[in-house]
Amino acid sequence: GAVVSQHPSWVICKSGTSVKIECRSLDFQATTMFWYRQFPKQSLMLMATSNEGSKATYEQGVEKDKFLINHASLTLSTLTVTSAHPEDSSFYICSARDRTTNTGELFFGEGSRLTVL
Amino acid sequence: GEDVEQSLFLSVREGDSSVINCTYTDSSSTYLYWYKQEPGAGLQLLTYIFSNMDMKQDQRLTVLLNKKDKHLSLRIADTQTGDSAIYFCAVSNNNDMRFGAGTRLTVKP
Questions:
Q1: Which of A87, B22, B70, B93 has the fewest beta carbons closer than 10 A?
Q2: What is the DSSP letter of A54?
């Protein structure tokens, strides 16, 4: 099946630094990718919808200047957590939809665990 | 927006059947999914069903959809200890996907 790769899987950073997380569709093209955040023992919360070649659409309550999303190609979307703080520590998961199919199925990355010290 | 609700916990004995339930509010939902998440891992798609179907079976998994009541269920036959995980119900209307809070399934030997 289709594969979505996230990198890095784990990242630890100091407070105040910025962290970039990549989401790649390895064997398909994705015009739309989604970014989710998951707190411990909680569900996935949709943060934003990333569209190739245009600005991302952010969910209510998500700071777009804090979580910068870039979808520069049909196989890559990046999420940059700017000036990270401990409360940004979370599990971030991306998903992508294959532009050639009409099943609506989303393929998920394995997630990136961010710990901000 | 979409509201998706699930019960938080389910405990069964090995070999029994597990039934995880999910309700949603948006009647325009077109795709409904079940995902499995093991500790520290990402999501694994188990199965999905189109809104014009009322049942789908895939080996030990059976998905039932009651579109009138907006109720989705996942039945796992002959539940094994390896089935212990969090199961997320998700619904999509082609634009985005919304998740339930997840049901933590515990399988006791």
A1: A87
A2: S
pLDDT single digits (tens) A22-42: 999 998 888 889 999 988 777
Q: Report DSSP state, residue B69.
A: T
Query: B100 — contact with chain A (CB < 8 Å)?
Result: yes
Which of the two residues, A104 and B61, has the higher pLDDT score?
B61
Handedness of CA B48, B50, B51, B55 (dihedral sign): negative
B94:A103 CB<8 A: no
Q: What is the pLDDT of residue B84?
A: 95
Q: Strand runs (DSSP E) across chain A, as ranges?
A: 4-7, 10-13, 19-25, 32-38, 44-51, 57-58, 67-73, 76-81, 90-97, 106-108, 112-116
Bridge partners (DSSP) of residue A12 are A115
